[in-house]
Structures are given as C-alpha cells and as structure tokens.
Amino acid sequence: MPEKTGRTENRPANDTVTFTLNGALRGARMCAPIAASGFAIGLVFGVLARQAGLGAGEATLMSALVFAGAAQFVVMGLWASPVPVATVVLATLIVNLRHLLMGAALAPYFTGLSRLKAYGSAFFMADENWALAMGEFGKGRQDAAFLIGGGLIMCASWTTSTLIGGSLGNAISDPARWGLDFAFTAVFLALLCGMWRGRRDLLPWIVAAAVAVAAERWLPGQWYILLGGLAGSLAGVARRAA
Amino acid sequence: MDADSPLLFALIGVGVYLTRVVPLMLALRRGEDDQGLDEVDEAPSAMDGWLGFVGPSVIAALLVAAVLPEPGQDLWLELARTGAALVPTVAVAVRFENLGLTVLIGIFAYGLASVVI
Description:
The complex is a heterodimer of chains A (242) and B (117). Chain A has 242 residues and is mainly alpha-helical. Helices cover 71% and strands 0% of the residues of chain A. Chain A is globular, with a radius of gyration of 20 Å. In chain B, α1 (5-32) packs antiparallel against α2 (37-67) and α3 (75-96) runs antiparallel to α4 (99-116). Chain B is mainly α.
C-alpha cells in the first residue's frame, strides 16, 4: 500500500464512495439555510435583470441554464444593446475560473461513480454546496449525492426567486434608489475577499484596478476588464518570479 | 423575449458548466489511468500559478469600475455614498465570507446612505 501524504489521508477508498437518496436529502437539508438566503439574492437579480431589459421568463431561463449567481450578476452589469457577446462570455468564464480548482478537488470523492452521476452532479456545483460537501467528505461521510442534493435545492430557490424578482421588476421604477445597483459592487467584494491569500495579492489587485480605471475612462467598450485582468495577473506572476 | 437571448444563455451555461466538469473529468481520467491519487492532487497546484492571479485581477477590475461614479453623476456625492456603504459591506465580506449576506448588507447600507447623504 503506497504511503499517503497528509493531503490524501481523508480520501475514501473507491469502494466506500456511495451515491444515495439519503445523501442527497442530507445535502438538501444542510443547504436549506443557504438556499433561503440565496432566495433574497435571486429576487435582487430578477429585479436587476428586468431593469436591464430582460423579461421575467428570460431572467428565469438564464438562472436555470447558468446557475451561477456571481457570473449572472456580471452579465447583467455588462448587458447593453447590442449585447457584447464575446465580452459577456469571456467575463463569465473568468469569474468562474475558481471552479476549475473546485471541480478537480471533487475527483477523489467521485471516483468509481457512473459518468452520469459524476458529471450530472457537476452542473449543480456552487461555492456553498461545494464547501459543505468537502466538509462532509473530510469528516468521512462519503456520499457523493450530498453535492447534487444541496445544489438542487439551491437551484430551485435561485430560479424561483429570479422569476418572482423578474415579475416584480417593473414595479420598482428606480432600483438605484433602493440601493439595488450596489449589489454588483457587493458581489465583486465578496468574491475578492474569498480569494484573499495574503499581502502578496495586494500588488496585482492594485495594478488591475489602476489599469481598469484608465482603460474604462479612455477606451470604448469593456476593454477595461481584459486589460485590468491581464495587467494584474502579469504583475502577480512577475512578483512571484522576482 | 429576444430570440437570441436563450442561445446566449445556453452558451454561457455551457461555458460555466465546462469550467465545473472538465477538471473533474480530467482528474477522474487520471485516477482511472492508475497514476495515483497524489497525481490528481497536482492538477490544481499546477494551474494555481496563473489562474490564481487572473480571476482576482479581473474581479478587481470589475469592482473598481462598479465603484466609480458614471459620467453625469455627482462625483463627490456618489463617492460619499459608495464609501459609506463600502465600510459595512467590506466588514461583512471579510468577517463572514458569505456572498448572500454581503450583498444584502451592501444593498441596505447603500440604500441607507442614499437617504442620509
């Protein structure tokens, strides 16, 4: 038997991975409070989507097909006529780059499952149910259905609240007056705080912000996103190499 | 409904799903190839160098653009409201690292600041 490192000690042997209804129900129960708070955010998203020109049905369809709150807020922040398709798609992918690491981290707990179960579960992977699932797996409860159970209740809450928010959207004539526009700022702040790894992050973030401000003022369209991201990441890589 | 919107949403949805499923597929495939679980562990760390900077940098760019007043707005009034709302929002974001709570507090704080200032 190969010697295990500290990072692999809690990993299951393949024959201990299960995928049961009980596991899904436990995931749904554990994620219910998060789904409830997500309901309020979904209402806000629905209102903002309606104000951006989407119908309630369109906003709901988006929530059902994408199921990624932060990415959807980013899309609404960039929504214009005509829609800058390339910018929107690129920005959503970049906002979800963290999923690359999260998805890979799930692999030890999905080994041995059918592709349908493993890849189907991945659609319902959000930050919150992923974190709870990793906690569960780390404690030795290795029912992989926990992820999809949590994701399903969160997706149902998110989609329903988007529909309600989108339906109410026209009743709120000036969302800025209610502070709803600040939702975008708050989403970005929350994401950044979750990514903070220490003072070494400060330089790339400041460079990204400075370049974005300059580009936003002097260049048309959404070039500030790409240029800011590029400048910040280059600054980070350069600092690491120095 | 705009005829192109469902197509665009599907495109975004597929892109987001791929970011979730492709690393899982690759890691599972590596595991099936009997190269050991430790190698599965190396996939995130190998990507970490570049991805670790791109995501936060882009979000920093989006954040600063969202914070700055738009042309035509009263610059100092808007900065005062935003600054006042940022204080509790940052505090909640740092303390709880919870997206939903941060958004709700941020909206409430900005709404309050708009009434007071």
